[in-house]
What we know:
Mean pLDDT of chain A: 96
Strand content of chain A: 5-15%
Number of helices of chain A: 17
Strand order of the largest sheet of chain A: 3-2-1-4-5-6
CATH superfamily of the largest domain in chain A: AglA-like glucosidase
Distance between the termini of chain A: 53 Å
CATH topology of the largest domain in chain A: LDH C-terminal domain-like
CATH architecture of the largest domain in chain A: Alpha-Beta Complex
Number of strands of chain A: 13
Shape of chain A: globular
Oligomer: homodimer
Number of domains of chain A: 3
Amino acid sequence: xxxxxxxxxxxxxxxxxxxxxxxxxxxxxxxxxxxxxxxxxxxxxxxxxxxxxxxxxxxxxxxxxxxxxxxxxxxxxxxxxxxxxxxxxxxxxxxxxxxxxxxxxxxxxxxxxxxxxxxxxxxxxxxxxxxxxxxxxxxxxxxxxxxxxxxxxxxxxxxxxxxxxxxxxxxxxxxxxxxxxxxxxxxxxxxxxxxxxxxxxxxxxxxxxxxxxxxxxxxxxxxxxxxxxxxxxxxxxxxxxxxxxxxxxxxxxxxxxxxxxxxxxxxxxxxxxxxxxxxxxxxxxxxxxxxxxxxxxxxxxxxxxxxxxxxxxxxxxxxxxxxxxxxxxxxxxxxxxxxxxxxxxxxxxxxxxxxxxxxxxxxxxxxxxxxxxxxxxxxxxxxxxxxxxxxxxxxxxxxxxxxxxxxxxxxxxxxxxxxxxxxxxxxxxxxxxxxxxxxxxxxxxxxxxxxxxxxx
Amino acid sequence: xxxxxxxxxxxxxxxxxxxxxxxxxxxxxxxxxxxxxxxxxxxxxxxxxxxxxxxxxxxxxxxxxxxxxxxxxxxxxxxxxxxxxxxxxxxxxxxxxxxxxxxxxxxxxxxxxxxxxxxxxxxxxxxxxxxxxxxxxxxxxxxxxxxxxxxxxxxxxxxxxxxxxxxxxxxxxxxxxxxxxxxxxxxxxxxxxxxxxxxxxxxxxxxxxxxxxxxxxxxxxxxxxxxxxxxxxxxxxxxxxxxxxxxxxxxxxxxxxxxxxxxxxxxxxxxxxxxxxxxxxxxxxxxxxxxxxxxxxxxxxxxxxxxxxxxxxxxxxxxxxxxxxxxxxxxxxxxxxxxxxxxxxxxxxxxxxxxxxxxxxxxxxxxxxxxxxxxxxxxxxxxxxxxxxxxxxxxxxxxxxxxxxxxxxxxxxxxxxxxxxxxxxxxxxxxxxxxxxxxxxxxxxxxxxxxxxxxx
Lengths: 456, 456
């Protein structure tokens, strides 16, 4: 089995990195490899290193974990580069959101139809994109044979951009498609026995196949909606504590009715402004928390992230066993099995984001689609000619693609006009003065000096 | 010289048909041909027939002019089918506009970014599109070797639709590109000596080449803007009587500044809502009439149409000479020279609308672009690899293309959702209830029964 070098950029996201380490420890075929955990936050790295060593000694495994604040040290000659880095702290984005709202843009100028996800930073993600492009550029130069796994959002835009503009062999990854399991579970099916397919763009994927025991199981969804949904929602409205508990929400069912296929995972967080006008609307569609992308749900999410960190710190300090914090066996995240397939030329099917190149009919070749594909040592082998209904193509994917193209244009070419026109397609805009002033103030916050220059 | 059959559908548009007849009379290579003038308005046909015969006897020529209310009679075995038919009277669309405005959609739900033209009927043009598709279908069946010249708007959408969905050999035609002559004239150049190119989509074309005496003449536009524009506008604001006199308006110059190329012809009527919020805004950008697509300008246009009809009727009644009503020689409309090129395999360069197929880089193959192309007996030979700046591609053509795709999807597949989502991208929308109610009332007016069924 090959001993490889894995460079993890942005490893300081402890909740995510600890799961990665867990899965690596459960993948003996990669034993002997070196894992470079890179971040600019040294305290997090120390914590992570402590966790990795302790957990390895607890459950067994054989890796060399190296922590570093030097990005190039992690990337140079790596076989796998993982980008999971988010530029800036959450507060940076919350400040741009606050200013947006002052100017009439509830939840921020970055939120648009089919991208309401609060940290899927597109038009205002200048530094995040720059960071991703720097990582891709360094991978291209210092690890030309590496696979670059793009986990940092916005996966849709960044996979597209990196694949278009660099030679890095990029694969975008997200776990949102696992939402099919919640669908199955809720309507009373065993998720492990479901045969599913969900395709589209990252965070905008639609259930194109849903089979159970060899038969189409869509009728079972319809039956659940007709007979059980109301009762389910009544209970859910009383008990929803996790704002992400929306896979079977009224929003999801309404989207299914309107667009013809069931939305999967983060797709449910999207939709046009009709689901998102304000907190009241969000509560109606996404439950009492308003879903993850309301002011309530997002606050819960941000707080929860810190809670997990504290839990881990506590466990390390007390020398209590770590295994109970994780599921038995692999977590279900596909990154470690995917790495195994790439490195050992062991074909497997994974949900990946790659340039379309004929995979989904009716979309340009050079836009990143999310599809199930065979991955082996040669990389991603796309299926060809997958299809989505015209309604989803033209009412969902095209508007979403337009936003991606506008943001890419803005990132590559700069200029104020793209920011203005971004908001001229937004039902929250009442005048171009409003749009201009919102952007002027956003560009003027401390830290945005370079971004302001780019967009002047 | 070939004697051919030309079928003109919607010939009752007298202002346009009289110019067609004028040009035919000035094209001896087509003498001996039969011209079928088809309309459902018999009175107009009588008037037109009277005009054609009188004018031919006045200035010479040799055609057989046949009027008919039977569309198939005009199309069957034709060599050229011209569709210039507009479904319904202007009042039909004015009623939909009136209802739209009642619900907060100034100038109607059909007006969108980069299509503010008041009779460029896209999303509410159900019957107009159906008529065009019927004509294309009959051409396909009864005149399979004919060229179908699509003059009726929306040329962009209908050329795309017909080329995708039928085998009719369609060429979309518009005279908006002639606006380059106004640019030249205003800045003091002889329009006849200008070498120009303007490309994009119909009504959304941008000056990609503007040369004079072998040199780039864009600097002369810049100089005019810097030194003369203010003075020109001062005078223009006092004297504008023709609402279409906007080629050198502040709107045009502002678009040039924002997007990097000068907008040509009807393109100036477009833009985002920032040029069109209300009459006051329109006046600021398009002069005291508010441009052709304000309530003032549009009223002038509709009235003017009737005025020309009366003038012609008067001239016929009085037996006064008709030639003074027309320019000397060809009008400058390209349709008759184009027919000559197609029929006699005489290569010529024309501004046409055809499926892209590589003509403009970065656009799908199956969308109709407006480009200059060589036309001969084999049809349109597209140039390849024309380019537009990213700013225009992503901020103008992509949003415009999205609207076309949404309208095409709506026409082909129906359903209420496309109408709702059409308005969910509109800054005039404040709630989905507003959008739904506007459409419900529009679909409920007398005459819209079939359309309502289609969109239910």
